[in-house]
Design goal:
Blueprint lengths: L1 H60 L5 H26 L4 H18 L1 H16 L7 E4 L2 E8 L3 E5 L5 E5 H5 L3 E3 L6 E2 L2 E6 L4 H12 L12 E7 L3 E7 L1 E2 L4 H18 L13 E2 L5 E2 L1
Antiparallel strand pairs: 1-2, 1-5, 2-3, 3-4, 6-10, 7-9, 8-9, 11-12
């Protein structure tokens, strides 16, 4: 009995020693595997940084790629790089990525329905980048909003209004609306109007207005500014004034002309169209008069 007890105790000790050695070996193997994974991440991060730097330099040198397309491309490459790096790390740690990647097919369908708005913004961003309807710094109008494009990422476009408001619009809303770009042109026509009293000398009025508008250094000599009569009413004669300017000078000319045209017409003896108020008086017996 004593001998049997000694044998059982010896077996228990040996089992405990084996489990301890196995645990230590597994711990060491795990630590070594984790260390290898950290090295993979460090090297991968360095490679992503190098690739991004080289790609950014190449995009800057390209004349066919604008700043917006360059930003979007760099963001996309950076995200894809980190996705591949995460897959490589998990594969190295012993996770079989085959079933996981295969399962992404079904999961992708479910996620597609759940994140269809986000996917729509992503695809709309791709269409904006490919078609390039605007660049960073352009003043645009999209739907009911307008402003200067300050930034764009894979989800949204950021606009800055003249009164310093920040507007964030998702790419799907921007791409789904008519986009008016006021900056991506060499010149822009200013639309101005003047109303003078009926009976005013037409040629004298047109010459006075044209002399004023062509005296501005911001107004381009070609195409020539247009000053013509557009409407005649019972008390006034309306003229349209259409000079051409660089896009950056649009509001400068617009405000200056409206501030100076009254004094210039007054100095030339040309009367501004008066406001007419019609008053009708009706007597008790039904007879009325004006």
């Amino acid at each position: 009995m004593i001998g049997a007890s000694v044998d059982v105790a010896a077996i228990v000790v040996r089992v405990e020693q084996f489990i301890e050695r196995w645990s230590q070996a597994r711990s060491i193997a795990f630590l070594l595997t984790l260390l290898g994974g950290i090295i993979i991440i460090a090297v991968g991060k360095l490679l992503i940084h190098v690739v991004m730097k080289i790609l950014a330099r190449a995009l800057r040198r390209s004349k066919k790629i604008n700043d917006l397309m360059a930003r979007y491309t760099l963001q996309l490459v950076n995200i894809l790089g980190w996705v591949f790096l995460a897959v490589a790390f998990l594969q190295h740690m012993g996770l079989n990525m085959g079933p996981v990647l295969a399962g992404l097919g079904i999961t992708g369908v479910i996620l597609g329905f759940a994140f269809q708005e986000t996917i729509g913004n992503l695809l709309s961003g791709v269409m904006i980048v490919i078609n390039a309807p605007f660049r960073i710094g352009d003043y645009i109008e999209a739907g009911a909003f307008s402003g200067t494009v300050t930034d764009m990422d894979m989800i949204c476009v950021t606009l800055s209004t003249p009164d310093n408001k920040k507007i964030t619009m998702n790419n799907k809303l921007v791409w789904g609306s008519p986009i008016v770009n006021y900056s991506d042109i060499e010149r822009r026509r200013v639309e101005l109007g003047v109303s003078v009293a009926l009976g005013t000398d037409v040629e004298k009025t047109k010459k006075t207005i044209k002399d004023l508008i062509t005296s501005y250094a911001e107004v381009l000599p070609a195409p020539e500014a247009v000053v013509e009569v557009t409407k005649v009413t019972a008390t006034s004669m309306d003229l349209v004034v259409r000079p051409w300017v660089r896009p950056s000078d649009y509001w400068k000319v617009h405000f200056r002309f409206n501030a100076e045209i009254y004094d210039r017409l007054k100095d030339s003896g040309i009367a501004i169209a008066p406001n007419r108020l019609d008053v009708y008086l009706t007597s008790q017996d039904g007879e009325g008069g004006q």
